[in-house]
Amino acid sequence: MKPCKRKQSFEGVHDMKLLIYSFKRLFYFLPILLCLIAIVFFLFYLIPADPVRLIAGPYATPEQTEKVRQQYGLDKPLHVQFSKYLIRFFHGDLGTSIYTHRPVMEDLISRAPATLELGFASLMGSILLGIPVGVFVAIRRNSWADHLCRAITIGGLAVASFWLGIMVQLYLGYHLDLFPIGGRITPGISLKNLTGFHLIDALLTLNMKAFFDSLLHLILPVTTLGLPCFATIVRFTRGGVLDSLKSDYVLYEKAMGLSRSVLVYKYILRNAITAPIVQIGLLVGYTIAGAIVVEKVFAWPGVGNFAATSIIMFDYNAILGFTLWSGIAFCIGTLFADIALALVDPREVSR
């Protein structure tokens, strides 16, 4: 009974340390967010362009231009503008878009499900494929499979997303006619909007036609966005497994006669998974914030497509809102990665 009580006591202490560790990481989130807002806000005003000219139009008189400047508060000193923007931000107000004439927060929220669905599908596919592939090629180091996988991962990291997107559109979508080349769903297929996530909405309403059509529309953009994620996870998993294979405890377990599958999945993978977890945290931000090119290529109606249009129109409120959205996505990704790392490796909690 005593060992059992000691184990329960140890688990209780570890759970408490993990909770404190999580709150610490969450507490660091606020100053990082404030620094991000400040950097983005002040860097924006270094851009040699005047948003007031775009709002007022090319034929506006100086009086009309000045009236618009006063209306948007751009005639105030920079520090006053920043303090007002900070107050509005914490009240959920990111200003009004010049392009859509709607609150930027509403535009981001209405387009967020499309981007989150694309990013989640890309990341989950990369994780489910990347970790097993990384383990497989690591235990077969210098085999033909290892060389082929390294070539694919190097290409996946080096290739430009816009070029890859256009290529898969041309060959898989246009020439072979296997998948749709743009949009989220075929026009004419009705789908009740409950959550904004097409796959979930289709399942909730038992609309299998809309489900499979939305799934087909996801394949090409998910492939384009997910290839760099897959390559990153494979390379870091492979490296972690190779490092673990050199450890003394692995040699000892081999000498004890453990099978390869038990040795890899019970002992090696847990120690090798720490590096991929850190990268997955960064990839959360990449798939959500870095989807701007992929969404534009595939006419995906998400936040990235909205940001691309805003940049062309120099819609400064929308650009600021998207940049903050991107920064928050990276912060949340690294926060979850830290917590996941602490769950996998308890030593992280004590550091």
Strand content: under 5%
Count of distinct strands: 0
Biggest sheet, in brief? Answer: none
Structural class: mainly alpha
- Please tell me what the overall shape is: globular
- Low-pLDDT stretches are none
Q: How are helices and strands ordered from N to C?
A: HHHHHHHHHHHHHHH
Compile the SSE list and pairings.
Elements lengths: L1 H43 L6 H6 L5 H10 L6 H13 L13 H35 L5 H15 L2 H15 L22 H7 L3 H38 L2 H8 L4 H13 L1 H16 L2 H6 L5 H11 L2 H29 L7
Helix pairs in contact: 1-15, 5-9, 5-12, 6-9, 7-9, 8-9, 9-11, 9-12, 12-15, 14-15
Task: Provide a compact summary of the structure.
The chain is mainly alpha-helical. The protein is built from 15 helices and no strands.
Give structural attributes.
351 residues, mainly alpha, MetI-like fold, 75% helix
